[in-house]
Design a protein that fits this description.
It is a single chain. By secondary structure, the protein is α/β, with parallel strands linked by helices. It is about 30% helix and about 25% strand. It has a 9-stranded mixed sheet, with helices on both faces. A 5-stranded mixed sheet has the order 11-15-14-12-13. Strand 9 (about 165-170), helix 6 and strand 10 form a beta-alpha-beta unit.
């Protein structure tokens, strides 16, 4: 509270950046779905803007400013930045640095063609004034019903939602009613500035992707492996659509050991059934790709589960909102 107050009264300085910047973050610890939102923005804007994603590189084994390249993996840049790099390759640039304010001049110097910076998990990063501050709110864990740590899961007070320029409610049920949307909208609007738009999205699970051995087809029987903050939605999806044999659940951003992966493979073998798939989340498999751990999984039916978002309503309005932000900043 003191830190935010010192920024609010401008005792601590915040800086405007010369090019458009969009921040995606939350008030709540744990997974609110930042990665799919960043990827949505990349798909929306990459054909018309040279995009750089800037993350701190959580749990990477390196330090300082780093531009992702062919020799990098999750250990050098972090699992989420590596996912962006692995998925979009040369369509965007991916940068990690603990100090985002230091990183931006380095980006503009090293990558002068940059026209848009996406700030990953930066709602609490007050040193930079983004062109647009996107606040995410998990449908199942709304910030307006939560409390500050350690009593609850809030990083900062609910009232700081007033810094948001737009709010996206993530992980909504596909059949969310207009009445419920209206009620959630009212609850959020108590804490945001007047007329801040609020959008609602649900999770879309795309077709499972083979990781190391393309000869396998995904099957009805599944061994699920997760190391994410909120695995329950994925677990429920698998149970609804497939037969879940076992769920290996690890802490968020967990780096798998060879012993742990061998234990999973050992369990797979005990089933005496070739008609089983081993499914990781996309973020989790990033901590395996490009490492010696690939060899353990190479001969087995290993897949990852891609996740995207779809708007319950107002997708074109959201796109127009983002374009207006960019037009205003570029002017």
């Amino acid at each position: 509270m003191l830190r935010n107050w010192l920024y609010d009264i401008r005792f601590f300085k915040s800086f405007d950046i010369s090019i458009p910047t969009i921040s995606v973050g939350n008030l709540t610890v744990g997974g609110t779905g930042k990665t799919p939102v960043i990827e949505y923005l990349i798909r929306l804007l990459k054909d018309h803007h040279k995009i750089i994603t800037l993350s701190r590189g959580y749990k990477r084994k390196t330090n300082g400013f780093l531009i992702a390249g062919e020799d990098d993996n999750a250990k050098t840049i972090g699992d989420e930045p590596f996912q962006y790099y692995n998925k979009f390759k040369n369509e965007i640039g991916v940068v990690v640095c603990e100090d985002r304010l230091y990183a931006i001049p380095q980006i503009l110097s090293s990558l002068p063609e940059t026209r848009l910076i996406l700030l990953d998990d930066a709602f609490q990063h007050r040193k930079i004034i983004p062109s647009c501050n996107i606040l995410l709110n998990d449908y199942s864990r709304p910030f307006y019903n939560d409390f500050l740590l350690p009593a609850g899961n809030l990083r900062e007070s609910r009232k700081n939602a007033r810094r948001a320029d737009v709010v996206i409610v993530t992980k909504c049920p596909e059949d969310i009613s207009n009445k419920e949307i209206e009620n959630i909208h009212k609850s959020i609007s108590k804490y945001t500035r007047k007329s801040v738009p609020i959008f609602f999205t649900s999770t879309k699970y795309d077709s499972q992707v083979p990781v190391l051995n393309k000869k396998y087809q995904f099957t009805e029987k599944v061994i699920l492996v997760t190391a994410i903050a909120e695995p329950e939605p994925l677990v429920n999806y698998i149970r609804r659509n497939f037969y879940l044999i076992k769920h290996f659940n690890f802490n968020d951003h967990h780096y798998f050991s060879s012993r742990e992966l061998k234990r999973i493979i050992s369990f797979y073998k005990t089933q005496n059934d070739l008609d089983i798939s081993i499914l990781f989340t996309e973020k989790d498999i990033m901590r395996i790709i490009g490492t010696e751990l690939e060899d353990i999984l190479m001969e087995y039916p290993v897949f990852f589960q891609p996740i995207t978002y779809k708007f319950a309503q107002g997708e074109s309005e959201f796109e127009e909102f983002i374009q207006k932000v960019l037009d205003k900043t570029e002017d």
